[in-house]
RNA sequence: CGGGGAGUAGCUCAGUCCGGCAGAGCACUGGCUUUGGGAGCCAGGGGCCGCGGGUUCAAAUCCCGCCUCCCCGACCA
């Protein structure tokens, strides 16, 4: 592994470090097709845990799952002008099928608005049909020029929420509600702190009125757009003629939203917590929260130790802990330690003759903050309770550490452009600055520094002393968070 | 599309300059010994040397053409 201390300044090292974790933790591998990715079982399990948590949160907010087709007629994508302009360049188009040229080309969905809205039009007639609150788990294809495992792949897995509402107010509430759901998930499950806020027009979803986003800061001090929630206004309703009849008998366009997070979150997880030894997983998203390593010197000990290990496993499973006993033969305990450390398992439980003798197990943490013991001896009876408490602590400490890291890489109140430039050039990180509101100025800063306005932060993230000047010197219209980003 | 690098065993690569039996480490298979921080020994399996053409008695190696991948840009809600 490359040296972690070099990670903030040398993006090439970080890139190599990232790719190595993806491979060595067996999260993903390359596919024969350019930019596509094979998600391996261990990596997929992490995604499944994410799916489970998110899906529960969607259900709790009244959403239902549905599934819409992979292909959309090209003419359908063309219906919303801004939408087609934004997506057409990166779509894959099927021109031949069934041994013949198709009369109308089919677009492999880059997102599903253009297939969902023609269909929802048939479902929605009356104010009584609203709101429609749908979610879809699916794959989408976006033919990006440059790809990176999990962060930007040609095909990726995601969920996309699509809702229709009777009023603008309701749609806006929904947009904000789901942004909040994402934030809760990212902080409480991924232990990845985020800044929420509004995107500028240039970064807005193609076809949306407003786009909100969750922005996280990775360990190399680059930003990651972790999730977006769009208020689509009546744009898609107009484009696909989706109207409903009000109580008063009027026919009016519905207001809609869409929101999504993807397997990119797995990449975010790696770059938020990983270290020189490999992956570090927050307990809530770890395929195994604990792995038991049995240790023995001879056959007699082997029997005793394995018996004790399976007893511990049974106790932990009964307590709802995801646990695995590593019984692989012909592998030293040390080799197993390294193996599971690379894979980010939060706690390793060593069970050897000494432990059996003492009726205890040795718990060794993967993530060890300052002034914390790496190893803790747990009594064999009651190990489950102690371990559960330890996992809760680890989850909290990971979030706290990630938040500290982000804060120490955050600069506020910067008004001097050359200072800003060298900050982006050298350290990176989040910079809170003013913005005049001009998109030309936004573009110039991007060209000069490769940094972009990540969000216009929500109130709770704003600085106490908001800058009065934009980086260009003009009066500031609002505070913005700038960073180089993935 | 521009700049740079690389294609040889599952992986990482040496060998190419200077043509002469296809190599190493890791991984894999079998056996024995091991196991509290990456095990050791022995035996074995595995190759269109990216593709096509040329030069030569002889090409992984030299020449010509093509293809692919990686990195840095351009692109990216």
Please outline what is shown here.
With 486 residues, the chain is of the alpha+beta class. It is built from 14 helices and 23 strands.
- Overall pLDDT confidence: 93
| Class per helix and strand makeup | alpha+beta
Summarize the amount of helix as a percent range: 25-40%
Shape: globular
Distance between the termini: 22 Å
Tally of helical runs: 14
* Radius of gyration computed on alpha carbons: 25 Å
Biggest sheet: strands, sense, closure? 11 strands, mixed
Q: Tell me the strand order in the biggest sheet.
A: 3-7-8-14-11-10-9-22-23-21-20
Q: How many beta strands in the DSSP annotation? A: 23
* Unreliably modeled segments: 1-10
Task: Provide an overview of this structure.
Helices cover 36% and strands 27% of the residues. It has helices at residues 11-24, 41-60, 74-77, 81-87, 113-123, 168-188, 235-239, 264-273, 299-318, 333-342, 353-358, 383-408, 417-426, 439-449; strands spanning 28-30, 37-39, 64-65, 71-73, 92-97, 100-108, 132-141, 155-165, 195-198, 210-217, 223-233, 243-245, 251-253, 255-262, 290-294, 323-325, 347-351, 360-365, 375-379, 410-414, 430-435, 452-457, 478-483. The model is unreliable at 1-10 (pLDDT under 50). It binds one RNA strand of 77 nucleotides through residues 12, 15, 23, 30, 34, 86-87, 89-90, 111, 142, 144-146, 152, 199, 202-208, 211, 213, 225, 228, 230, 293, 295-298, 302, 329-339, 350, 352-355, 362.
